[in-house]
């Protein structure tokens, strides 16, 4: 990777002993709850990139692009002690997700039973992303039980997992792929 006339290093070797630096320079274990939390957010962001690569729907793609940028803010928020000044997740980020949810819900039938994750490839990927968002949320909740965390990060991840479920349904509907409902009668024992 070139930066100007010099080569920018990706390999620093500073993490070879199993530690990494938070924003502000504090070193912590790569297995710390904080690193696990923002690592799950990073995984979610990458998965959304994959879902976008499979999407043909410009409206949902645009919303996911905004969410991917938000997830970088969320990651920075989680990687930064409270006294460090960085962009932080706020109620306005949550309100944006709620607006998207309301918009996409207008085209969907209300659910009367559970649906099986799947459908069109992009829809199925959004269902997987929803589960990763829930894992990230659980990890941030666990972190918040140990250390101070911006409470809006938990609310954001909660709303995001709901939105990803709604988006998966919308993608499948727009692709003409019917939802598969759970059938508990198939297992009687």
Model description:
- Strand 1 and strand 2 form a beta hairpin.
- By secondary structure, the chain is mainly alpha-helical.
- The chain is elongated.
- The strands form two sheets. The chain has a two-stranded antiparallel ribbon with strand order 1-2. The protein has a two-stranded antiparallel ribbon with strand order 3-4.
- The protein has one domain: Cobalamin adenosyltransferase-like (Hypothetical Protein Ta1238, Chain: A), CATH 1.20.1200.10.
Spell out the key features of this protein.
single chain, 189 residues, mainly alpha, Hypothetical Protein Ta1238, Chain: A, two-stranded antiparallel ribbon, 5% strand, elongated
CATH superfamily: Cobalamin adenosyltransferase-like
Q: From the helix content, strand content and strand pairing, which structural class follows?
A: mainly alpha
Order of helices and strands: EEEEHHHHH
Looking at the overall shape, the CATH architecture is Up-down Bundle
Question: Could you name the CATH class?
Answer: Mainly Alpha
Widest β-sheet, arrangement of strands: 1-2
How much of the sequence lies in strands comes to: 5-15%
The stretches of 5 or more residues where confidence is low (pLDDT under 50) are none
CATH topology category name: Hypothetical Protein Ta1238, Chain: A
What general outline do the C-alpha atoms trace? elongated
Helix content: 55-70%
- Termini Cα gap: 58 Å
Report the biggest beta sheet as strand number plus sense, adding barrel if it closes: 2 strands, antiparallel
What is the overall pLDDT average? 88
